[in-house]
Design brief:
The complex is a heterotrimer. Chain A is of the alpha+beta class. Chain A is 36% helix and 22% strand. The radius of gyration of chain A is 27 Å and the shape is globular. Chain C is 29% helix and 28% strand. The chains are: A alpha+beta, B alpha/beta, C alpha+beta.
Chain lengths: 769, 265, 83
């Protein structure tokens, strides 16, 4: 076709699209399926323009539309009890859910993935992951107060792991430290299943007063739409753009960046600038620009509001003037926000922008037409019902089935397997086994990582890694605060996705309760392989079903999260890895319980019972075995344990508490001893007798619903009475021994704390310098 | 920061601080640049010490009614050119430089990025380069107070060891040998790292002063060790604590307040 | 001894936060003549002896693989400078 070039581009207008129905469009290159393209044509009643095609293609992607998981995710909204709704101010579906903390305070938190970008360019991938989740929190009207980062990388000794590790950790630090947000915890797991697909998840939490809650909607006809923050470049479009064809001329496509580069300084300024806007009530609705950029922001703001918006796209401030309209709509340039402002507030809004030297441009206004109209120099290039872009994307019922191999995997138990040969039994072997465990890649000390993050900034961090949960004060006058923990166990979930997901939730719940906080809400990041593989789809369906069922029993709702699919190398998927974050509330953070003991002579109690559950354990992992069934989940017991830990913390009955999870009792005893360098004398004979397990099992089993606590002598009677009254198994297994410098366990050669610390701390520096 | 933000609002605390009668009248400015991070913490520290924090904005052309100034930590302008290099040219900085050098000798404390800004401003000699191990480091750091006669260290004993958090990327203090010798000779090495030099700083120097002792800069963060439950004594950083208390940093702020109100030490 | 100088710049299409912050500061100090700044890196590789074609080829390869990150940076110059 030949169109005379009088403008910068030969723009494909709506008028042109109506006249040229047979023009070939690059829908396949943009990731759309034939049926999806046909649906777009049906919705519009004509072929889409190039710009419209760009919008639909990004908004109907798996990442933005959740088309494969939506049918299953519904359960999080459906399986909700009154108890779960009690404190929910904003539910799933907004940028992040909001939970009532009382005293007029509200908290919002969310966890997201940035997996694939972090493999391509670990530093920038991880950095922009933090940036994106923090903007989600700001756009709810909250001041971000902390971040966390669960990480899963390939084998610790694989040459490529160091590249990803160094880059991702430096990126999280480089970006997060520059924002002034304390990093209060996370996870670090090494497993070869993540070699080509590292998982870089990021969590942010923010707080606000109730009246400051903001939602992403564009209401009020005549209100102005403004884009502010960084300029728009070709970020996230990738390579040479296929959209060059939208301009229907022969100019060669310009280069587009393969990765997004973050500017943490710009983000920090954006945070302060937004908080000043909120304080002055200068915005009616606000939306951060993440995946799908302006496409997402305009269509979501419009469809959540009065249903209409008009935008002139040439008003967008560009970093790269060669961008085509479609590219501007798709760009994922970082550190940008879109807001709706009443005409009366324009001057005040501009004053805030000028104060912080933030660039902005007015793009258009809210209408009541129900249409999202985007123009280019006045010519209409997009004319759509915004709901069809933002909400009415395709939904797939992907076929799924329990994998044929699942039975064989579950039948392959650790006990008695080839890998189980020579199980430690003598005191010397036991001692060596404990040391080996706590020096292993997944159980070793993570301060090589966490020492690269600022945990102090803000002056409100009450606990951080390596304690069970991160704790941040919200209100200085009352001490009100929040606790957060994230957990996942890909090995458990591989063995049994339904219960594996529940185990992740149970552990995060237990971690929060161990800190003394009352669990209130859940955010999840579901990292899975390809949904087009029925095996993987079954894992995803089972995990969601398991999580949503467990939330009902625990009485805490999922308020947000994200799904990350296609995490696989070739046809080999990662272990299903639902990362679950639980948020809890402490009326006074001064009451939080640390994970280590300090006071000589305090009694050490083990709460809960121990069964022979070594399948999927860290011990079996060290011996190269993965099979059988994960530990049993008993959510009622988790709830009962949580109540005991919370009451004991509130009433001053315990001085330390540590949950038992990966590595079992052995890992917990070592960690609680090393926390403050104070040892203990432990005897497990009574436990072995009561639970019918041997010493090895007592130490290395990963039975759930357990914790160890240190009880002051003066509180022992009260503490025991409480456990008895609640019918919860409790057993005094030893005492804190401040003088010995050792962890002594009957039947295990004494472990010097100095030697344990050296083994525990040497692993990461050995591999990563 | 035109006013104190929603987190950390406890204005009433200052009035209640024990022995604070008279101190609350002392006004300590806390400067915010774009990219400043620890301004709220510094304001809290002033408040907990009994003084009145006054937010100052980098673009202000007047210093206003303040008796001392804290330049807090952070990444002003992203530290993209050199740490502190762009902030040094802010309108407010020229007022602070003049006031520090004037006969009135305005007390000025630069913490971390604030220290870097003070060296870029030539209020203090030397410079900071990337840590010798090239990584950002956050740890609880033991310091020895080498000079307790500055405006900011009067409440410490000479030789006292204190533990306060350290967190930086560009914390390696360097100066030529002649300057280092002069600093030592004049007693202007105010703080030295003890036990572990976390960034390769020359002669284990953690902080220095000008010759009058009114301008002090250091890399570690006293404002992060001013409150029970939120400092190094709580074992916030990973491994076993270094045995410090949670409030070893409070002395910086009480020192200057006591000096300002003529309180004896 | 001769040195090989390698200059690395962020790719033109990649955001350069450093340059952006500096270009913002220039006019505040009265330097009004500049519309953009991009900040790159200069490496100096010292060679013991003569710079042969093989050494120079090695330097080029090192520049492309180690000294720059091809995802976000370009090697814009490799040249020999006599000390």
């Amino acid at each position: 076709m030949s169109i005379e070039t009088t403008k910068k581009f030969n723009i494909d207008t709506v008028e042109n699209a109506a006249k040229t129905p047979d023009t070939e469009l690059p829908w396949a290159e943009l990731g759309l399926k034939r049926n999806e393209f046909d649906e777009i044509v049906k919705v519009l009643g004509r072929r889409p323009t190039g710009a419209e095609l760009a919008m639909y293609s990004v908004m109907w992607s798996e990442h933005c539309s959740y088309k494969s998981s939506k049918n299953h995710l519904r359960q999080f909204g459906e399986k909700v009890t009154d108890e779960m709704k009690k404190d929910m101010l904003v539910g799933i579906g907004e940028n992040a859910g909001v939970t009532n903390l009382g005293d007029g305070w509200a908290v919002t938190f969310k966890i997201e993935s940035h997996n694939s970008p972090s493999f391509v360019e670990p530093y920038q991938g991880a950095a922009t992951g933090i940036g994106g989740i923090v903007r989600d929190i700001i756009s709810m009207g909250a001041r971000p107060v902390a971040v966390m980062d669960p990480l899963r990388f390939g084998a610790i000794d694989h040459p490529d792991t160091a590249r990803v590790m160094h880059g991702a950790v430096a990126g999280i630090g480089g970006y997060g430290n520059c924002l002034g947000l304390p990093n209060i915890g996370g996870e670090m797991v090494f497993d070869s299943v993540y070699q080509g697909n590292p998982l870089v998840n990021a969590l942010a939490v923010g707080v606000m007063r109730h009246e400051d809650i903001r939602l992403a909607n564009a209401s009020g006809k005549g209100n102005k739409v403004v884009l502010f923050g960084a300029r728009t470049g070709g970020d996230g479009i990738g390579g040479a753009s296929v959209l060059a064809s939208e301009s229907f001329d022969d100019t060669k496509p310009s280069k587009r960046p393969a990765v997004q580069v973050g500017d943490p300084f710009a983000e920090k300024v954006l945070i302060e600038c937004c908080l000043e806007l909120f304080k002055g009530s200068l915005v009616e609705g606000i939306q951060d620009l993440g995946a799908a950029g302006i496409s997402c922001a305009t269509s979501e703001l419009a469809s959540n509001g009065d249903g209409g918006m008009e935008v002139e796209l040439t008003s967008v401030l560009l970093r790269d003037p060669t961008l085509t309209p479609g590219e501007i709509l798709m760009s994922e340039s970082q550190e940008r926000m879109m807001a709706v402002v009443t005409p009366e507030n324009i001057a005040a809004f501009e004053a805030v922008m000028d104060k912080w030297a933030v660039e902005y441009s007015w793009l258009g206004e809210v209408t009541d037409t129900g249409r999202l109209i985007i123009t280019w120099e006045g010519e209409v290039i997009v004319d759509v019902d915004p709901r069809t872009v933002a909400h009415d994307g395709p939904v797939y019922d992907r076929p799924y089935a329990r994998p044929e191999w699942q039975d064989a995997v579950q039948a392959d138990v650790f006990t008695g397997s080839v890998q189980d040969a020579g199980r430690p039994s003598t005191p010397a072997e036991m001692s060596a086994a404990v040391t080996e465990l706590v020096a292993s890649p997944n159980m070793c000390d993570k301060s090589w990582i966490t020492n690269q993050y600022d945990r102090y900034v803000g002056g409100n961090t009450s606990m951080a890694f390596p304690d069970d949960a991160g704790v941040v004060r919200v209100d200085e006058e009352t001490g009100l605060g929040v606790a957060l923990a994230t957990d996942a166990n890909g090995r458990y979930t591989y063995l049994d996705p339904y219960h594996g997901a529940q185990l992740a939730l149970a552990e995060a719940y237990r971690n929060v309760a161990t800190s003394g906080a009352v669990p209130m809400a859940v955010s999840d990041c579901l990292n899975f392989g390809s949904p087009e593989d029925p095996d993987v789809m079954w894992q995803l369906a089972e995990a969601i079903r398991g999580l949503s069922d467990a939330c009902m029993v625990l009485g805490i709702p999922v308020t947000g999260g994200n799904v990350s699919l296609y995490n696989q190398t070739g046809t080999t998927p990662i272990h299903p890895s639902p990362v679950v974050a639980v948020l809890g509330k402490l009326d006074d953070v001064a009451r939080r319980t640390p994970s280590g003991w300090r006071e000589d002579g305090q009694a050490i109690y083990l709460l809960g019972t121990t069964a022979a559950e070594l399948d999927g354990s860290e011990w079996s992992n060290l011996r190269g075995h993965l099979g059988g069934l994960p530990p049993k989940v008993d959510l009622a017991a988790e709830r009962a344990l949580g109540e005991i830990l919370i009451n004991a913390s509130r009433d001053g009955m315990i001085d330390a508490a540590h949950d038992l999870s990966e590595g079992g009792l052995a890992a917990a005893l070592v960690e609680s001893s090393l926390r403050y360098g104070v040892g203990a004398r432990i005897a497990l004979e009574e436990l072995q007798e009561r639970d019918g397990v041997d010493l090895f099992t007592a130490l290395f089993s990963e039975s759930q619903g357990r914790a160890i606590v240190a009880v002051p002598r003066s509180e022992e009677v009260r503490f025991k009475d409480m456990c008895t009254a609640r019918g919860f198994a409790h057993l005094r297994i030893g005492v804190v021994d401040a003088a010995g410098g050792k962890l002594e366990i009957n039947g295990v050669d004494a472990l010097s704390l100095d030697e344990l610390r050296e083994a525990h701390e040497a692993t990461l520096p050995k591999y990563f310098g | 920061m035109t006013d104190l933000p929603l987190i950390g609002e406890a204005a009433a605390v200052a009035a209640h601080a024990s022995g604070a009668r008279g101190l609350a009248g002392a006004r300590i400015g806390v400067v915010t640049f774009p990219g400043t991070l620890d301004d709220r913490d510094a304001a809290r520290a002033v408040r907990l010490a009994g003084g009145t924090p006054v937010p100052l904005w980098h673009a202000d052309t007047q210093l206003g009614d303040v008796d001392a100034v804290v330049i807090p930590g952070g990444f002003s302008y992203g530290d993209y050119l050199r740490a502190g290099a762009i902030a040094r040219f802010a309108p407010l900085m020229s007022k602070i430089i003049d006031a520090a050098n004037s006969d009135a000798k305005l007390p000025v404390l630069g913490i971390c990025n604030g220290f870097q800004i003070l060296t870029e401003s030539h209020l203090l000699p030397g410079s900071m380069i990337k840590n010798d191990h090239l990584k950002f480091i956050c740890r609880d750091q033991v310091l020895r107070v080498e000079n307790n006669s500055t405006d900011w260290t009067g409440d410490y004993d000479a030789g006292q060891e204190i533990t306060i958090p350290l967190k930086n990327q560009d914390g390696q203090y360097i100066a030529d040998e002649k300057t280092l010798d002069a600093l030592e000779a004049e007693g202007r090495v105010v703080f030295r790292y003890v036990g572990f030099n976390p960034n390769g700083s020359r002669r284990d120097i953690a902080g220095i002063s000008n010759s009058a002792g009114n301008v002090v800069g250091l890399m570690p963060h006293p404002e992060h060790a001013v409150e029970v439950g939120f400092g190094p004594g709580s074992g916030l950083s990973g491994s076993a604590g270094n045995g410090g208390t949670d409030t070893d940093g409070l002395g910086f702020f009480t020192s200057v307040l006591n000096k300002l109100v003529g309180g004896a030490k | 001894m001769p040195r090989i100088v390698v200059d690395v710049m962020p790719k033109p299409e990649i955001l350069d936060p450093q340059g952006k912050a500096i270009v913002g500061a220039l006019p505040r100090l009265g330097f009004n003549g500049f519309s953009a700044v991009r900040q790159g890196k200069r490496f100096e590789l010292t060679v013991d002896g003569e710079v042969t074609d093989a050494i120079l080829a090695q330097a080029r390869e090192a520049a492309e693989t180690l000294l720059s990150n091809p995802v976000i940076e370009d090697v814009v110059n490799v040249e020999v400078v006599e000390a």
